[in-house]
Amino acid sequence: MNILITGLNNYLGKRLAWHLADEGYQTSCLVRNEKHFLETTEEHPNVSVIRGDLVRERYTPTIAEQIDVAIYLSQDSAEWSEQYKNLELLSLINFIKQARKSNSQQLVYITRLRTPFIKEVQQILTDSYISYTIVRISNIIGKESILMEMMKKVSSRFIIFANQRLVKMRAQPIALQDLLTYLSFIVLNPAAFNQSFDIGGPDVLSYKEMLKAYMKQIHINRPIVSVPSFNNRLSAFFISLTTGVSVSTARAFGENITQDLLCENNHIRDLFPHECLTFEQALKAALA
Fold first, then answer.
1. End-to-end Cα distance, the chain
2. Is the model's pLDDT at 228 over the cut of 80?
3. Least buried of 155, 179, 194, 276, by fewest C-beta within 10 Å?
4. CA 168, CA 52: separation in Å to the nearest integer?
């Protein structure tokens, strides 16, 4: 069974590709920079690489004639500008073209819980006349995930200065392995065709509660001091300054927490009643 996947330069992308390859799928990874991709990943007998540009529609080698599932991972942007939106939608449209040429049975679009142009995406997928599944995900708890790295760097300070807006926002972080289990269930499952799912963990926590739980796990105690919120650019600079992550990463993270990140559509739990790890269990697994 053949899978085409693109959007592999984010945290989930490569891990999903290798997870599917481990399950026996022949996985073709569509990337822009083949050299960089190969330098940062291990070889796998079920993984092949296609160098391609979805905007210019150039692919080397050509995409296989038979692809059973096409998976598109949306890329977070620090600035959800009109220009970025247009490029993202153009890339998706061109990806669907390749899926149609390859007789794909399913399109899977994976994005974060708060994507401002999800309605446009859904219309494009509907117009493709291929069975589709939209997956909106919460924060991921896994080794080297963005949230884990930020908590690690923040907790290394003697005093933690936290954005007032950030510490109050709530989310449903999910363990990486649980997320991969859900995605495996969705692949080529008719019950998931033409559906949209929100996927998060079982616990609803504020970022302050997550940070406290993280510090408890690593046996340290730091005072958390809330400071006023700034505009997006200043807020990104402050997050970068206090966590050590790049300004662009901080800005993308900040854009993602303008409101609570809670699952609204929990239908997947009815279809697949999987017991997810709690936040503390996911932390232990990621820190092991």
1. 33
2. no
3. 194
4. 41
* Mean pLDDT score of the chain: 87
Among 83, 277, 93, 249, which Cα is nearest to 180's?
Answer: 277
Q: Which of 150, 195, 167, 180 is nearest to 260 (CA)?
A: 167
Q: What is the pLDDT of residue 255?
A: 58
* C-alpha–C-alpha distance, residues 104 and 247, integer Å: 38
Burial label for 58, CB within 10 Å (0-12, 13-18, 19+), is exposed
Checking if the pLDDT of 189 tops 90, the result is yes
Hey, what are 216's tokens?
């408890």
Tell me how far apart the alpha carbons of residues 250 and 243 are, in angstroms, rounded to a whole number: 9
Alpha carbons 249 and 45: distance in angstroms, whole number: 32
Sign (positive or negative) of CA dihedral 83, 89, 92, 96: negative
Tokens linked to 113: 């819980």
Mean pLDDT on 60-71: 89
State the SS3 of 189-231: CHHHCCEEEEECCCCCEEHHHHHHHHHHHCCCCCCEEEECCCC
Nearest to residue 3, comparing CAs of 52, 62, 68?
68
Which tokens is 108 given?
């899977």
Length of the chain: 288
